[in-house]
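Supplementary Note 2. Why include the ligand at all?

Several targets in our set were suspected to adopt different conformations when bound, so apo predictions alone were not considered sufficient. For every target with a known small-molecule partner we therefore ran a joint prediction. The input for pyridoxal-5'-phosphate is given below.
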Amino acid sequence: MITLNRDAPEALYHQLFNHFREQILSGAMKAGKRLPASRALANELDISRTSVVNSYNALESAGLIVSRERRGLFVVDKLPILYEEWMLSDGDFMPSPASNLSDNQDFPSLISLSVGSLPVDFMPVEAMRRALNAVLDRDAGAALGYEPTEGYKPLRRAIADHLHSRGMNVKTDQVLVTGGCQQAIDLAVQSLVPPNGILLTTDPTYIGLIEIARTRNLELITIPWSDQGIDLTRLEAIIRERHPHLFYLMTTFLNPTGAVLSMQQRRQLLAFAATYHLPILEDGVYDGFDYEDVGLPSLRALDETGMVLYASGFSKTVVPGTRIGYLITNLQLYPRISRVKQAADVCTPGLNQRAMTEFLRSGQLNAHLEVVRHACKHRRDALLTALKHYASGKWTWTTPLGGLYIWVEIPSTGPTALDLLRKATELGVDFAIGASFSPNASWPYHLRLNFSSYTPPILEEGIRRLWMAWSDC
Ligand SMILES: Cc1ncc(COP(=O)(O)O)c(C=O)c1O
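The joint prediction is reproduced in token form.
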């Protein structure tokens, strides 16, 4: 029995998509089961056939059903890996007693907790295949030609709409499509910080920003970000004394710590930006990737001065390999930054831009994100459980509300993170050392652990190896 609510804000096709998704995942609709013909179902439910077709398209893009030529649509034989974890509920993972985990189990020889992205088996392959085919069928050669430097217009529009839904008032003309978020940051830095100029950031900060400062010969100065957030008195003193050209930071889910800047600190930063004419580059690449609702607007959403630039993209939430990112600037700066983009690479590949546009327009982003977040939250909880099981009372760590990392502190009376890494690699596990997220090599006793790449049993084995390495150091 399918019940649809015509008064709900959720589109009918999406309600139908959710209905079938639930039926398939709960096993009520088994592998190989045929879906009703779209015309018959539309008549039965008294809705348009387009709504039914759109919901079937979305199910196909999600890899839950397949089309068999002239025979119709069927539930897939094997669900995508991502959905296997969707079906596990919170708290399902229990660590094994230590003695039950043994080296002869089928674990990878190296469990790499150092990575910074989603695993490849979380990529929306079907959705991308469909989007690419649709673009090539529709646009033919135009999909393979040059695009305007600013980006493919419908994508710029779709990004502006996406950001609107996140509370940001962005005009299409303010969107510059870039080669990933990394290029968005680099272009903003190149355009705003002169040669030998001063770039201000937090400590710790994103490693890619440190690399930009180094390769472009900029002076990188920092303000520590502790458990209490940023020391605003010290920040103001730095701004007054050093006159930085740009302040780069992540306000939500700082990579590596997962920290979130408080509302009060956000407002104070904006006040400094206005008082001292300090441009801020906000990196929002993990925005929207939350496990608990953080509910804080971005600086860009709060900004009334035009001093905040916003860099983000789809690498952390959807696919890194299409290299689609974006920079939101104000209209005065836009021509300068797009000129720097033109000098850098002329344009971002059009085929990828057009495919991403299809993906956004089809409403797949939110459906896909929902499943990916669920799986990642499950993995985060598994890693936390394993840490508690092995290292409770010895190490301390954060419980991130979003993003992909847990920030762990080991005792300063023992090995440094670097010493531990050497030993850990011998035992088949690695991680990112805290010092690499600081131009001052701060955080010698911190580790950044990624939890998105492995299933709970492998994560647990990784922590067991890490604990053994630490105990042996
Ligand atoms: C904070 C932050 N900003 C930017 C990037 C770069 O993202 P992209 O792959 O879209 O260039 C990363 C990637 O790790 C990141 O963690």
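The first strand starts at residue 65 and ends at 68. The radius of gyration is 24 Å. Comparable summaries for the other entries are listed in the accompanying table.
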